[in-house]
């Protein structure tokens, strides 16, 4: 029993390390989102760090339109980045979980 507990603790520590490595890797995964007409492009990492915004000159003429574009496009890129991050981290966490029958039902 004690050996099983030590094995589980080792597995948890290994999983925690893999989660941290995955988080670091996600800093280099870039996610792009464009406005519906392509006049605005927003790029961020899968860890939701904004890295670039590209604005077509025509949007600079209408402040309100530009603000709307920014809000909509940034929210969409955040949603994409969040989905990628959650999916990657869930896969690592699930891989490191002990094999307990029925536990996988709670992980979905």
From TrEMBL:
GO terms for molecular function: DNA binding. Pfam families: YbaB_DNA_bd. Residues 5-32 form a coiled coil. InterPro entries: YbaB-like_sf, YbaB/EbfC. The keyword DNA-binding applies. It is found in: Cytoplasm, Nucleoid. Keywords: Coiled coil, Cytoplasm, DNA-binding. One of its GO terms (cellular component) is cytosol. Belongs to the YbaB/EbfC family. PANTHER family: NUCLEOID-ASSOCIATED PROTEIN YBAB. Homodimer. HAMAP family: DNA_YbaB_EbfC. Binds to DNA and alters its conformation. May be involved in regulation of gene expression, nucleoid organization and DNA protection. This is Nucleoid-associated protein FHK87_00095.
């Amino acid at each position: 029993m004690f050996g099983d507990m030590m094995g589980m603790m080792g597995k948890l520590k290994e999983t925690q390390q893999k989660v941290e490595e995955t988080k670091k890797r996600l800093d280099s995964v870039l996610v792009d989102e464009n406005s519906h007409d392509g006049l605005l492009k927003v790029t961020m990492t899968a860890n939701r760090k904004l890295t670039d915004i590209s604005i077509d000159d025509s949007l600079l003429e209408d402040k309100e339109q530009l603000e709307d574009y920014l809000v909509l496009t940034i929210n969409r890129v955040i949603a994409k980045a969040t989905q990628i991050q959650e999916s990657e981290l869930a896969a690592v966490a699930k891989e490191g979980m002990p094999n307990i029958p029925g536990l996988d039902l709670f992980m979905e």
